[in-house]
Structure prediction request, 71 residues.
Amino acid sequence: RGKLTFVGTELIFCDSEIKEYGFKPGLTGIVQLYNSTSDKEKLRLNEFYLRNYSLMMDLEILFKSIVRKLI
Prediction:
């Protein structure tokens, strides 16, 4: 219960992230916006998200994700 948020990181990055940063995986995230396929790029984007987390960033990711699905 309570293991997912709307915006967060990918599930594959979550075991250490929850312990180290206190973040939960999300339904959408920065990796999905950039269509990253390489594990190295996914890790880089997830680390960027974790280090620069803010409410504004979450709102921007959520808004862009919704717009991408509608177009």
